[in-house]
Design goal:
One of its GO terms (molecular function) is kinase activity. Residues 161-222 form the ANTAR domain. InterPro entries: ANTAR, CheY-like_superfamily, GAF, GAF-like_dom_sf, GAF_ANTAR, WH-like_DNA-bd_sf. Keywords: Kinase, Transcription, Transcription regulation, Transferase. The protein is of the alpha+beta class. The chain folds into 2 domains: 6-166, Beta-Lactamase; 171-224, Arc Repressor Mutant, subunit A. It is 59% helix and 15% strand. It is built from 8 helices and 5 strands. A 5-stranded antiparallel beta sheet has the order 2-1-5-4-3. Helix 1 (6-22) runs antiparallel to helix 2 (26-41). The longest helix has 48 residues, at 145-192. It is elongated, with a radius of gyration of 23 Å.
Length: 229
């Protein structure tokens, strides 16, 4: 673990903030977060689970397949610290998986994977919890008050960065969708001698009738030169 004290801490978090600002999209953002966790917190593994559409959990960043296995167990319905952190919007610390008896099935699973201590910290914004930062160590009692304090600061940076990256991703998708719809309208206007309003109405009707997103209808028309059946 790299010791973070005084100016060193300020400098490293300042650099992290710059790295997160320069990240291109949500996945690169969370990759920077877990890399920082490995360098500064002395954990064996780190990962981020994010809430996506419909409340599902996605694992966009994990430093080792072990993390993905631990997350997958809980995503599939098993109880554990990730589930509790997400549900209660709180930090959950497991000092030693050999003695912690809160989630016996989960503890047995992670022990088999060589994990002895776990720290799950929620990623929260003004809109609520958007995910969880998970830290894992092969050593028992690896996360003390100092590590927990640093993890909270890191989670705060990550929460803001993830929210910002998601907004940018959504804006980029919206711009892309507008471009596709515009191209599709141009095809209809040229082929059927329609004006812009009627061309858009055709796309919207096909979207509604086939229960297909307008963007997908436009993309299919561009690719196949045919509207959905």
């Amino acid at each position: 673990m790299i010791e973070l004290t005084g100016n060193t801490a300020a400098e490293r978090f300042a650099q992290l903030a710059l790295d997160l600002h320069d990240s291109a999209g949500t996945e690169q953002t969370v990759d920077a977060v877990v890399d920082f966790a490995l360098q500064t917190l002395g954990c064996s593994h780190a990962g981020v689970a994010l809430i996506v559409n419909g409340g599902r959990l996605q694992i966009p960043a994990a430093t080792d397949p072990v993390v993905a296995e631990i997350y997958a167990f809980q995503i599939c319905g098993g109880e554990g610290p990730l589930s509790e952190s997400m549900r209660e919007h709180s930090t959950v610390l497991v000092r030693d998986t050999t003695t912690d008896d809160r989630w016996p099935d989960w503890a047995g699973k992670v022990r088999e994977l060589g994990v002895c201590s776990v720290l799950d910290v929620p990623l929260t914004t003004s809109d609520g919890t958007v995910g969880v930062l998970g830290l894992y160590s092969a050593q028992p009692d690896a996360f003390g008050p100092d590590e927990e304090a640093i993890a909270h600061i890191l989670a705060r940076h990550a929460s803001i960065a993830v929210a910002s990256a998601r907004r940018e991703d959504h804006l980029a998708q919206a711009v892309d969708a507008r471009k596709l719809v515009g191209q599709a309208m141009g095809i209809l206007m040229e082929r059927y001698n329609l004006d812009g309003d009627r061309a858009f109405a055709v796309l919207r009707r096909y979207s509604q009738n086939t229960n297909t997103k307008l963007r997908d209808v436009a993309q299919q028309l561009i690719q196949t030169r045919r509207l959905p059946g």
